[in-house]
Amino acid sequence: MENDPLSLDEIVRRVNAKAADYCALSDRIWAMPELAFEEHRSAAEHIAMLEREGFRITSNIGGIATAFVAEYGKGGPIIGILGEYDALADLAQVSGVTEHMPTAKGAPGHGCGHNLLGSGSALAAVALKDALANEGIAGTVRYYGCPAEEAGGGKTFMARAGVFDDLDAAFCWHPAVLNEVLTKSANAAIGARFRFKGRASHAAASPHLGRSALDAVELMNIGVNYMREHMPSDARVHYAITNTGGDAPNVVQAFAESIYSVRSPHLPNAERLFARVKKIAEAATMMTDTSMTVQIIGGCSNVLPNKALQDVMYENMRRLGPPAFDEADLAFAEEIREAALTEDDVLASVAPDNISLKDVFLHDGLLAMPAHEGCDMGSTDVGDVSWIVPTAQCQTACFAIGTPFHTWQLVTQGNLPAAHKGMVLAAKAMATTAADCLRNPEIITRAKAELKQRTGGLAYRCPIPMEVAPEDLRTKAV
Amino acid sequence: MENDPLSLDEIVRRVNAKAADYCALSDRIWAMPELAFEEHRSAAEHIAMLEREGFRITSNIGGIATAFVAEYGKGGPIIGILGEYDALADLAQVSGVTEHMPTAKGAPGHGCGHNLLGSGSALAAVALKDALANEGIAGTVRYYGCPAEEAGGGKTFMARAGVFDDLDAAFCWHPAVLNEVLTKSANAAIGARFRFKGRASHAAASPHLGRSALDAVELMNIGVNYMREHMPSDARVHYAITNTGGDAPNVVQAFAESIYSVRSPHLPNAERLFARVKKIAEAATMMTDTSMTVQIIGGCSNVLPNKALQDVMYENMRRLGPPAFDEADLAFAEEIREAALTEDDVLASVAPDNISLKDVFLHDGLLAMPAHEGCDMGSTDVGDVSWIVPTAQCQTACFAIGTPFHTWQLVTQGNLPAAHKGMVLAAKAMATTAADCLRNPEIITRAKAELKQRTGGLAYRCPIPMEVAPEDLRTKAV
Amino acid sequence: MENDPLSLDEIVRRVNAKAADYCALSDRIWAMPELAFEEHRSAAEHIAMLEREGFRITSNIGGIATAFVAEYGKGGPIIGILGEYDALADLAQVSGVTEHMPTAKGAPGHGCGHNLLGSGSALAAVALKDALANEGIAGTVRYYGCPAEEAGGGKTFMARAGVFDDLDAAFCWHPAVLNEVLTKSANAAIGARFRFKGRASHAAASPHLGRSALDAVELMNIGVNYMREHMPSDARVHYAITNTGGDAPNVVQAFAESIYSVRSPHLPNAERLFARVKKIAEAATMMTDTSMTVQIIGGCSNVLPNKALQDVMYENMRRLGPPAFDEADLAFAEEIREAALTEDDVLASVAPDNISLKDVFLHDGLLAMPAHEGCDMGSTDVGDVSWIVPTAQCQTACFAIGTPFHTWQLVTQGNLPAAHKGMVLAAKAMATTAADCLRNPEIITRAKAELKQRTGGLAYRCPIPMEVAPEDLRTKAV
Amino acid sequence: MENDPLSLDEIVRRVNAKAADYCALSDRIWAMPELAFEEHRSAAEHIAMLEREGFRITSNIGGIATAFVAEYGKGGPIIGILGEYDALADLAQVSGVTEHMPTAKGAPGHGCGHNLLGSGSALAAVALKDALANEGIAGTVRYYGCPAEEAGGGKTFMARAGVFDDLDAAFCWHPAVLNEVLTKSANAAIGARFRFKGRASHAAASPHLGRSALDAVELMNIGVNYMREHMPSDARVHYAITNTGGDAPNVVQAFAESIYSVRSPHLPNAERLFARVKKIAEAATMMTDTSMTVQIIGGCSNVLPNKALQDVMYENMRRLGPPAFDEADLAFAEEIREAALTEDDVLASVAPDNISLKDVFLHDGLLAMPAHEGCDMGSTDVGDVSWIVPTAQCQTACFAIGTPFHTWQLVTQGNLPAAHKGMVLAAKAMATTAADCLRNPEIITRAKAELKQRTGGLAYRCPIPMEVAPEDLRTKAV
Q: What distance in Å separates the CA atoms of residue A263 and residue C26, rounded to the nearest whole number?
């Protein structure tokens, strides 16, 4: 197909053409870190860029002020590219240094690289749009501005609002330390807050008049620990105590609170398990003569991988090759590893499967597709999208091998040239794969058939009940 | 009052006249030990003796075949004297020896001296009857044949049936190692059996399919242990696990069972506490996805002491003096202490208050009435009688100091001369005090006023629900 | 004894002479509330007053900057009068109103009336000094400036430093809602902080690599709750969880902390029980593969009441009569009860024994001495003084009946005329009783004999180990 | 290879020649069921048969009177064939009926088909011996008489004694409902008995003097249930409470006991986990002031499958075909399913992988080799043999599909013609595969290389410590 505007070479050309603009966007977002649900300026920056490119904007999706959809084109296959832009608390950090240098006490920072994530996805969407626009090709491209990933579920609310329903394929990526197509599933998750109320009393003088909410929290935990033997091995239940009812031992604790996360490779199993956990909480109130309320504070579906899309994306990444890191990139990566990363960090980065990479400072290859899919025990709100539309994800090397997530070490690398290079590669991987879907609808057909097979024909059902508002997640993630 | 047929001297004379017959009855009962609810021959022996004395017999009281009332006289004050005759499992023992010599493997024995208790009370009733009969004095004397004390509640069922309702005063005693009027209260108690049902599964291959009834038992216990901080200090809750669901660790336990006793100085408090325990049991089923049934297996009211009667009884015991133990009695007491009782046994017998008695082999004095009433943490079904009618109790020295209850050491002394002497003293103490009530109705008036004050005007309410039959107690005492 | 300078009338005269000055001191302290160990200005105010009166000051007692002793006189019996002046967090409140009106957010306030306590005791000491000084009577009077009562143990450290060792009698009081001589014992107590350290891990991805410090805290609590059945009924153990290891359920908690208080009517029992608690904590680390450190953060001895002194104090209080509350005092008491006190508050104030007082607004009588001593389940560092020297305490009506301690309702009444009246009465009760001891050494002899009998001849042993510094108590009270 | 004496056809011929004798042996063993470690007559019957065939007998292996080795031949590859012959308690049952008909109350029965297992293996060994003997072929064949499989470890003790050390290949089988080569691993396991000792006391009167051994058992369980979150998902820990310290709630339990099984796919992991469990038990004694002893009561290594041998065995089974069940066999299978097997039994028999077999009464095919190995969560003492020598196992259809192990339904089929047919097939599968090893040493070389790779070069280490004697396992299996 000569001069095919959707060919890899053409898409690469278009990405390269606008790469500098979107690297600049990423750097601006890096410099204005905003917490989950508070990404007003970050969303506005994205919207401004995309409007300028001719995208139509729909804001305030699913009741979230900082969620938006930017759309271009019409008819044909509809491609979604997902972006994020929320930061993390207490991670403000000077750029490009190898020691911990907060820019402000307690201020947020982009500890998960979502500045790159949002901008790289935008770059992919724009390049794809440019290809469509140039030739008048049918098809629609959408950029999804997805807030509050770190609060456990921006996309879940967006999914609940139906904005992914008419998509034909969706793409996402994450800045990381390795180049690879993501093939694993991830657990479905439900998060809830349990608030117990008892009756205070002096613990020495009249303990028999007190009813301890803290006892209820403890008995709930005990009940759950007994349940562990009798739940599937692949499920996970974990908790934190978020209010102990005070620091004074001489007062029977009248109030106490805990947060639970329940995970399973299958949402219905997670829901069943959560129902058991809730029943245990009720039982704990009966044991202690206290009362309780439950509040769902998050939820996401398990990820349904899509091999049809992954195979195409892998082939594209193979052809694109790794980011072209230069001496300076490598030098800084080596420096930060020496100064601020541990051997354990490095081993955690590469895992046993890729142990040979432990002596590499920046990943300059592409991981092979694994024989088995596997399941990450963690959870992501991309899961909800993946239940609605065939979805593929990759990650690219933006940071020195060994850089842990949610650390100043990651923040300090977030606007360096190496990060830009990883981001641009991700944009190319997504845009070329999306282009392949547009010019070869058979891929979408196969991907949809696979999705249907994986869902067993079950329609997507949002794990967050309608009565839970995005507000409710602000306080705590799953 | 000259030649007063109800005077102490006259009553003593009458008791002495028939003492040998009733010591012989006691020895026969000793030799035919029958377990709780099975005392058919023992009851028959008592009935035969009392019928011969002219008592009218009503059998099968409160649904218990071995409970009976023997009555003599008419009108006037009605005096009740309570007897027991049940034995204990696995305590068959040769008489009069100082080592463990079972007469038959596993056979029962009179480890609590109820052979003496039943016969001594009968002797008191008969002596009292003789006094009434001789002079045509108005008044009624009743002997209550109370079975199954060791199963936790013959008298409770009899009380439920109303057979104590028209009494004016009741007397009881217990063979023991010391001579004293009993002044303490004793706890109200409720006993129940909790049966949990889960679902078996192979504990290695499919533990997630199992629902452990043993987990439920454990979680109930945990819940109760958490409750301890928040219940009155003077209450007691204790348990035994009576079925663990099998000895195989590789099977999730589908069945398990525990027994709980709940005690408090006040029955309503015991009931409230029991309701909390029951709720904890229900909660344990919710935590484990199991089910449960509760069965009440016993209950008795707290003892309401009656100082008005105690004072009279104390004065009589003071005048009667201790049993006249002879050299042979003392020699055997010394021998058995040397051979078969420990220093701890002796200290437990005499308690700190009477520590000077620790060097005595058979008690030859009378304990003074204590300044404060106190409360025994244990329980007795005499409690139920004491809520209905003013009740006084004493104990007398029948066994060597240091002899523990429910042991072969007690059994072996149960038909010796010393035991007979203690029994005869008890008969005199009860009969003379009852006689005082008959000739001085003012005592009864005072005693009833005191009872009313102690109940706070509350009517007796049986702690065992109507739907629980005596049968249900056979399996286990509180 | 005519014109006896130590007679009740003379002492009363001398207290009245300086009452206004010390009410003013109390009001100044009320207006400068300082937390435990931080009472620098409050201590300075007291010192200034007492220096002006001719007392010799020794500061910085037992390593506490705000602890001091003020002494006057020489030889003869040495009388100690104990004062306190620390405030409580978050109780700043406008005076004389019937609604909650904080003067500053989070600021401290005198929620326990220690402004009155310190000033009233100083008034007693000064009046006593005046009596001695005037006539050149032999004898020494000391005012003890005792900080940090609310942090659980200023006096304990002072006792450890030996400053009470040569006293012949000690007096103390507490502002309250009733007039009475305090006769009850109070529990000995030990407080400790348990810090657990585990290993963090992702709770979904690698829980098997984590070792939960929070599990250790919970298992320690469970172990203690199981121990409850097997410890004396009159002991108390209670706890607070002061660090849960974070609010994120998806991280295995690497750190957690709890605080325990252990109490018993007898210090050795409290110590034995604390040793069991500590062993349970160690066991919890073994169960969870974590480690732990224990830090003692407080301790005080049980109170040994002294009937010899109480009887004298009671006779003086009887002669002194209640505070002379006027219409305005009563009107405000009625007003605040209506507006801000509940029926439960009132019942808690008067307890079943004095139920008739529930309809009174300000106590205008004197409670009779109870027949039995009893034991308060709470604890006070006066206990340590009471082990060293015969000690008597009273409380006087300073606040409306129903006013709970540690509330804004108490703060708002802390500088009103009624409070002043109660304080002056307490000063008189202490000073007259101390004067009786000076003129009648036989009282001291009897009091010391009683103390000796109560200690069983055991010397005072400080419950806080030498290696624990006052600093260590700042963080948390027992 | 013409007239190859080790060819499948020749081996089949030799098995058929003696099949009747060994079916008769099996029937005799079926009729004399003996419990683990008590198989004196059963072992003697096997020994007699094998001695008659010319085998050399070594008895009393590893300290077990009923363990023996029977050997024939010399030099060359040494082939081991493993037999078992212990029965199970309380399963005596009339043969060939479809209802529960015990032949004697409480008597043992062959509920696991070990009568067939021992005789079938003997038949294989004898056929192989006949082939060697006939032609003077080099090589040694051994029959291992392995007792006490049901008590959890006869072979483990034999392995500890070194009797498998010089083998070149080992074969085993199990009578079952399906024909298949066994390919799964099975967990390593350690079993132990924990005995706790406390101090009795009256639970109402003096609970504070008691130290509850039952509390220790419960707290150990709680500790383990907390550990579950922090152990590998593929490990298993389960327990039974085997002594609760008595049925009387009013006595603090002075003695209690539990049994734990710890399993893991890797023995060192099981050992590490067991060490944690043991530490938790010690911690439970510290929490309760009790003491404890641990007794190892069983242990076995995980099974190391050997694909090299399995492939050969599968090929032979494919060629041998299924047992030739006739109408009568099928009729009885149908009958017993109707009368005495449930739908759940059938589903448990065939598992989801072979669901189509649920409508079959007797398995007349051969299951395909699965793609993945998998791991049975249960355990077997064949694991220990498999660590020392390449080992292959099959199972054959001897019973109606749906027949559960350890039931009278299995016993009643244990000497029927269908069972004989399955047994003879197993003998052929083992003997032909062993013959292949003898004539093609390359198989052994490959099998040994695989074993070495699977052990990672680690030498076999017996999971049962030297100080544990076979005696110690009599009481309870893992």
A: 60
